Amino acid sequence: MTRAWLAALLLAGLPAFAQEQPAQPEELKLQAEYPVEGMAVGNLSGLAWCSDALWAVSDREDDRLYRLTPADNLLLAEAETFEAPPVTDSGLPWGLRTRSWLASQVRGGELDFEGLACDAEGNRYLVSEAHVSVLRLPPAATGGEWLALPSGMVRQARASGMLLRFNALLEGISVNPEGSRLWLAAERERRGLLVLHREQTKWTCAGGCVLFSEGGSQVAPPQLDVPAQPRDFSDLTFFAGHLFTLERQAYRVCRRNPGNGEVERCWSFAGEALQEPRRYGMQTFGLAEGLVIDEKGAWIGLDNGSVARNDGEQRPIVWRFAAPSGGWSAK
User: Fold this and answer.
1) CATH value of 44-322 in 1.10.3470, 3.40.50, 2.120.10, 1.10.287
2) DSSP H helical ranges for the chain
3) Rounded distance, CA 60 to CA 3, Å?
4) pLDDT tens-place string over residues 229-259
5) For 250, phi and psi rounded to 5 degrees?
6) Residue limits of the Phytase-like domain (predicted)?
7) Helices within 194-310 (DSSP H only)
8) What predicted TM-score, i.e. pTM, was given to this entire model?
């Protein structure tokens, strides 16, 4: 085989090879950004649309949610307080629970609420990372109840490589409108999705709690110029029959099959998020922690930990992105 013939063969094969490469995710277009006024300790860790309003939760406060109301290019946060009963034992090992408790003595937020979801009746569901538990709050209630999650859920998750590391436990929650199916997102190292089904007042693992788990690293957008980071989930939400995951390190939102977690399509928000005025100093990781999807677009909330970004803004931020071309269900 001559070199010329080999070169021609390789060149002829290039177009076919290029077509097999994954397409770059479509960039979402930012419509507006809203500083959040009124979250005293900041640390916005979850978002949800409940009834007629956007709500937020902070992982540093164990006794309140925030209703977010637009006003003068801001979102005004109005607190609704509640009292959580003593948390039930989820089966998480003593060592992880102890490390979480010690951390809370320094930073606050012993329950470490990392996600928020609502069903069609207005019930709110808050996931506690520190205890791998879910608190259910009825509409306008001052008290809630911890869901009776399956006793084998934590064991199954850990056998799949999830929920093994401190501060890398459950990071997101979603529920279907009927309140009969609940999804939980394990954050990283390994990340994955769990699914639970309600039977009367109990929650079960129908065919197993683990939808999938995966390890590995995620290449950050080129604007960050940092080494690859562990793949992660920072929130998830259910809309129009699909699960949508917020993937913080990749600066993207992905649509997934709710039955097996398989990714169907992704959209990037890196182009808007990493513009110089919106950057946070020597930032090496993503800050997006809250996700809501609706027909017209997406809400994405940032947990900036009270750190000021390059334009001086220090409050939590919520972005409003337009829906992608063709809508969220497009192939």
Assistant:
1) 2.120.10
2) 3-20, 94-107, 153-159, 270-273
3) 65
4) 999 999 999 999 999 999 999 999 999 999 9
5) -90, -5
6) 40-191
7) 270-273
8) 0.91
